[in-house]
Amino acid sequence: MLIKRTRASDIPSSEITSETVFHERRTILKAMGLGAVALGTPIVAGATSGERKLYTNEVPLSGPVWLQDKLKTLSPSLYSTAEAATPFEYVSTYNNFYEFGTGKTDPADNSQNFITDPWVVEVAGEAELTGKYNLEDIVNPHTLEERVYRLRCVEAWSMVVPWVGFSLADLLKRFKPNSNAKYVRFETLHDPEQMPAQASRFAAINYPYVEGLRIDEAMNELAFLSVGVYGNAMPNQNGAPIRLIVPWKYGFKSIKSIVKIEFTKRRPKTTWEMSNSREYGFFANVNPDVSHPRWSQARERRLPTSIFRQNYVDTLKFNGYGPQVAHLYQGMDLGRYF
Ligand SMILES: Nc1nc2c(c(=O)[nH]1)N[C@H]1C(S)=C(S)[C@@H](COP(=O)(O)O)O[C@H]1N2
Ligand SMILES: [Mo]
């Protein structure tokens, strides 16, 4: 269940895990010797009753020092689902990141030397402020929060992931988009020396990977830029150092390892649409009533699964985020604009 929309300022202070409590919790777990053994086990340890809980995989903080400092002030979000998160070991080993290979374990296997620091993001197009910014300058003005969101892949599997990040709208507003800014286009790094699939003549899709949102979708409170999972920096295979999360849309909209954000007049051509527009649309809203041409979208396999227990659950329209986003599509034929 998604907690009803509430202004951040309305969160009772008793529900916010203070920095001190967060530190204490890490310290307590270390003292209990849980540091190593707990790897892969989500410890949802609220320090005292009434505290909202943060997920951690209980390994030392990683990433650049400025990010480690910000991670220490991570706070929970009212937009988090109360469903249990998929264990870190699945979140970080069952991935789609075609730049590193099309197999589910390829990204984890092939991205370990991927260099994500320093990292530059270009902001371009229809806005008052544009330019190239170090990742630190992109992230620093924002408070990091944990958003536990469902992620529903178009391939009909899903996970629940405790992302770390901040509101996309809050970032976009800093650049003062003008009235021509009708869409936002995102681009992944193109670096064939680091991303082996980009060097292949038989690539499954065109690179760089491109995604886009209508400006009102991008400004929706649920659209999120993520720099980590499980209280820590983003694993390379999950799209380090910064990626998009659009929880009401199929996973392919949630573009990884972003190097460019552009405000555009026209709807951008997106990677999967270009690859096969009959099967993958621009909108890609999760919808159990609109089948993929080759399979039903009515249900999904919630990870972790095993051959003995496939763990099917019903797919929800807008992935269950209808109360926050259904108004964006009022009057639209979702079967046509899939
Ligand atoms: N650049 C890039 N972004 C991408 C992809 C990709 O192949 N390349 N795969 C997408 C798909 S299909 C899904 S389901 C999610 C998977 O995110 P995860 O591996 O962190 O679960 O990333 C999306 N973002
Ligand atoms: Mo996906």
Distinctive features:
338 residues; eight-stranded mixed β-sheet; five-stranded mixed β-sheet; globular; binds the ligand Nc1nc2c(c(=O)[nH]1)N[C@H]1C(S)=C(S)[C@@H](COP(=O)(O)O)O[C@H]1N2; binds molybdenum atom
Structural write-up:
The strands form two sheets. Strands 1, 4, 5, 8, 9, 10, 12 and 13 form an eight-stranded mixed β-sheet that branches. The protein has a single domain, classed as Oxidoreductase, molybdopterin-binding domain (Sulfite Oxidase, Chain A, domain 2). The protein is globular, with a radius of gyration of 19 Å. The chain is about 20% helix and about 20% strand. The protein is built from eleven helices and 13 strands. The two termini are about 25 Å apart. With about 350 residues, it is of the alpha+beta class. The chain binds the ligand Nc1nc2c(c(=O)[nH]1)N[C@H]1C(S)=C(S)[C@@H](COP(=O)(O)O)O[C@H]1N2 and molybdenum atom (MO). Molybdenum atom binds next to loops. The site of molybdenum atom has 6 residues, from loops.
